Amino acid sequence: MRFLPVFLDLAGRDVILVGASEAIQNKCRLLLAARARVRWYAAPEDRASDGTVQVFARAPNESDLAGAALVVSAAGEPFDRQVSAWARARQIPVNVVDRPDLSSFIMPAIVDRGDVVVAVGTGGASPVLARRIRERIEALLPARIGEFATLLGRWRPRVTAKLKTFAEKRRFWESAVDGKIADAALSGRLTDAEALLAEALAGAAWDTGGSVAIVGAGPGDPDLLTLKALRAISDADIIFYDDLVTQGVLDRVRRDAERVFVGKRRGRPGIGQVEINRLVVEAARTGKRVVRLKGGDPFVFGRGGEELGHLRAAGIPTTVIPGITSALGCAAEAELPLTLRDVATRLTLLTGHLVEAGEVDWSGLADPATTIVVYMGLAAAANIRDGLIRAGRDPATPAAVLARGTWADSKSVVGRLDALPALAPRIGEGPALIIVGEVVRHSAPWLGASKLDEAVA
Ligand code: SAH
To answer: Which of 284, 205, 196, 194 is nearest to 240 (CA)?
Structure first.
């Protein structure tokens, strides 16, 4: 670490700006937000003095720096060098924009959410990289985090007065920033949050109860996690995950979280739904923040509904966080529109298990404007073909098999419906989806746009 980050209180202090560039104008905005009194030399011509900014058309003299708390300059050479030397001689911290060599401090990229401010620096090496990092942090922070911080700040004197030991205070604040109080404040229910704070402080035991989030992990690519899902797995004490949850997603789980694999792997039976339900409830009852992490979306062929029912019956507070279901992830990756005006107006999601069990009413799927997506359907490829063609669907209807969608080794094969059983084995290991419908004709694999794809006549 080359520079020490600090937050300066500049309220009412004098800050000198030199130069008219856009960079200096941005600094002026920031300094005013921090309630500094700005003295601006060699300012833009159209800038007038007002209550907080004193504007000078001329360049500053050495003596103009007297009493300043900070100096920021972007006047260009050689004047910047002069300003830097004057400031250093007077022991005033100075920043010359884009010139770390002339600066005694540098300005970080910042995330500004009111009382919550995050500063990101790269030691002057790459402001653009700092901005990228800032964008990522920006995306991670809940929108109302600043209001939440302000609320907590307001309560601080009361909490300090009431709770005596450091440990008590820490436990109080930890429960406030993580639990129901945070949930209420961050979802905009500030009155509820205040009521919960009051209740907690009045001595009613503060929230140490466990909870469960049933979270959709999306089709595989960790960048397709929702922001809420990312937050849930970043905060979890324990996660129970299925076999379709990829390593890339697991890498984003909180490092200290316990990880329990509860899926099936390669023909080996899993631990079973009853046992999963039991483990999840048990973990929540010990006060843990539990994440039940499932591939795709929990409510699309993911048994999320059953698990939710069980948790409700057990009286465990539960939330559901949606994920991008594999049909949507795979379709987007293959540039395959699932509905398309004048081509497909209906979308049906099916499971191959029902097909194998002979429980699908094919007559309802014969309409050429229906797109059909079959999950877990590889073993049922021949039945799907037979059922659809018998119901009157054109044997020449295009079909696609999309495997390992959004994973690094995703693969797709396209061809005709009547060749579907020959397509399926070509994609290698699952998971894979079968998509049947005229829209496949508009997809990247059909149009030959991707080298990975194969077409079977
Ligand atoms: N809840 C999940 C589906 C679970 S069922 C979801 O919403 O996606 C498991 C089936 O999902 C697999 O057999 C396969 O058909 C499909 N699947 C899941 N992830 C997939 C992926 N990355 N690529 C292709 N198919 C996938």
So the answer is: 284
**In whole angstroms, what is the distance from residue 354 CA to residue 79 CA?**
78
pLDDT confidence of residue 452? 45
User: Contact, 33 vs 114, CB < 8 A?
Assistant: no
The closest of 219, 214, 223, 280 to 244, measured between CA atoms, is 219
Q: Which helix (H) or strand (E) holds 353?
A: helix 352-356
Tally of residues, the chain: 457
User: What is the distance in A from the centroid of ligand 1 to the CA of 361?
Assistant: 22
Burial of 115 (0-12, 13-18, 19+ CB in 10 A): middle
- Provide the 3-class DSSP secondary structure of residue 346: strand
Distances (CA, A) of 367 to 41, 354, 400, 430: 74, 20, 18, 28
- pLDDT tens for 120-176 read 999 878 888 988 999 889 888 888 999 999 999 999 999 999 888 877 787 788 788
Residue whose token pair is 């104008």: 25
Residue 341 has pLDDT above 50, yes or no: yes
Write out residues with Cβ below 6 Å of ligand 1.
Answer: 219-220, 244, 294-297, 300-302, 325-326, 330, 375-376, 402-407, 430-433
Active site residue 264: yes
Euclidean distance between CA atoms 263 and 172, whole angstroms: 37
Give me the catalytic one of 9, 162, 223, 264.
264
- Which helix (H) or strand (E) segment holds residue 229: the answer is helix 227-235
Model confidence at 455: pLDDT above 70:
no
Q: How far is CA 169 from the centre of its chain?
A: 31
And the tokens for 218? Answer: 């999306």
* Ligand 1 atom, smallest distance to 297 CA: 7
Q: Which residue owns the Cα nearest ligand 1 atom 5?
A: 301
Within a 10 A sphere around the Cβ of 72, how many other Cβ atoms? 27
| Four-residue CA torsion sign, 80, 83, 89, 92 | negative
C-alpha 39: how far from its chain's center? 41
Catalytic residue among 64, 80, 242, 297: 242
CB 217 within 8 A of CB 247: no
Is 228 a residue of the active site?
A: no
Closest CA to 197 of 165, 173, 225: 173
Q: Report how far residue 134's alpha carbon sits from residue 149's, in angstroms, rounded to the nearest whole number.
A: 19
- What's the whole-number mean pLDDT along residues 184-189? 86
**CA 377 to ligand 1: nearest atom:** 15
